[in-house]
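quick one if you have a minute, typing this from the bus. theres a chain ive been looking at and ive put its sequence and its fold in token form underneath. please have a look and point out which stretches look like helix strand or loop to you. anything you notice is useful, everything is just below.

***
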Amino acid sequence: MDMASHNTVEGAKGIGIICMDHSMCQIEHNTVAATQVDGTQDPTRGGVGIEAFFYAEAQLEHNTVIASPGGMRAFDNSVFTP
């Protein structure tokens, strides 16, 4: 179990906030802005503001993602829940 709360992430390369590898994460009250594509062809590193990866469950509440081309994405059997 992990938590990301009350963070401001600006200009991160690849991914702003990630929940991964069979984790359960609470992601709440964060602002992620201008996440950048890292130059690879890997969609999991495509400027994703908030990402769940590899069987992860990310519980989201009151997050803001701005100007991040990958938006919020769940990969490899992961899910976002309210």
